[in-house]
Structures are given as structure tokens and as C-alpha cells.
Amino acid sequence: MGTTQLETVPEPKYWHLRTVLSEALESEFAVGEILPNERDLAARFGVARATLRQALEQLELEGRLQRRRGVGTTVAPPRVGVSVGDEEPRWPGALDEAWQSVDSTLGTPPTAVARLLGTADGEQVYRIRRSRVSHGQPVAAELLCVPVGSLPDLAVPDSSLTAAAQARAVLRALGTRALDGQDRSVELGSAGADDSKELDRLPGAPVLVVTTRFFAEGRTAAVSVATYRADTCRLTFGDSGRVQIHHQN
Hints:
Elements: H1 13-28, H2 38-45, H3 49-61, E1 65-68, E2 72-75, E3 80-83, E4 99-107, H4 111-117, E5 125-134, E6 137-147, H5 163-175, E7 181-190, H6 193-199, E8 206-216, E9 219-229, E10 233-236, E11 244-245
Parallel strand pairs: 3-10
Antiparallel strand pairs: 1-2, 3-11, 4-5, 5-6, 6-9, 7-8, 8-9
Helix pairs in contact: 1-3, 2-3
């Protein structure tokens, strides 16, 4: 690694350093590699350590770096691609092994979800929680709400099963129904208390909220609200429509 001096530029010095560091991350470092310590980096770029810390904090905010206690600053894995293009409709739980079932309970849906489902006040739904992990870090949390009436043949969840097993049972039952179609919307949001805990982010952190409605027999049969970390995910557009993890070479 050679020595690089920053030239005088009209933009803040830390921002220019952030750009230089970003280029170095792409050309000199691999995912998971530990960066040199702050003293060596500051010497290489000819800046004060306070300026360096500002640049590193900005890159961490953008999801390019991860600071791990006891390890140091490492290069973050590539962002998870959240596709919002056209896709062949399919039920959640089908061909999406990246999601892991966490919990299943009976209860009422959030107000916004109840409105999409068209459920009556107090109507019970299966509330399925799932999570997604990439490169050892949580990147998304999902709440899937399925009205009990959408699965008339499903017995009351067996209390002897674990919560994750109950969730998988609901997903299997849902997958046996004929799916008419689905629609999807994406918006920027802020992490709530539950999501921030699951995503290992502070409450209020920026997130991408992907809401999907699933249709069967002329009505909304289920609604999924998936919350993605905005610092680790990006939107993709195309024909496949599948949520994919894009790995760098």
C-alpha cells in the first residue's frame, strides 16, 4: 500500500477521504478483511484521526464497513438485492430457503395489515415471524399475517410443537392453496422496537419495507411485511423478481 496525500478540495476533507477509502475497499480489500488500524490509515492518507473516524463512520452508515468489538473494522459483505420487478407469483415459504421461520402465534394483525386483509375488528390471524441472515448478520425480518379463514383445514397449532415448527406448518398449509396472484410495494421506513431488535439496529434506523399481498379465490389470503436493513440492502429491477444475494467475485 503506497502513500496517498489528499489534495485541497472544496468538499469536506472527511467526505473526500470517504470517496478515496471507498475506491480502496473495491480494489484492495476482500469481504470480511480487517482494515489497518486508525493510526496507519491516518498516516497513509495524511489526515488527522478525527477526520479518518468521520469517513469510517460514513462508510459504516452506508453499509460498506462493519465495526466488530474485539475484531476491528472489516469490509462488509455485498448488499442483499431486493427485487421489485415482475415475478411468477408464489406463496412465502416456497423456494426461499434464505428465510428462517422463527415464531407463530394467533392474534390480531396490525391496523394497516388488517386494512389490506379486509378482516373484521378482532378477527384472528396466524402471525408468522421469519428472519433472513446473510454472511452471519441479520438483514431482514418479516411478519406474515394469514387469516384463520384462509386455512380452514389447518388444525389449531399443536402446543407440543416449537414456535418455529408451528410457523412451518402454517406455511405448508398455505402452499397447498391455489395462488391467483400477488402485488408488492416498497417504501422507506424507520425500524420499530421489534424490528430493530431482530435486525440489530437502533430504533429509528432507516429500513426498506416491502409489503406483499397474496390473492386466492378472489380475496386477499395473506399479507407479508418484510423489513430490510437499508444499509445492507438495495432494490433491483428485472424479470426474475426473486430476492437474491449478489456476491462479488
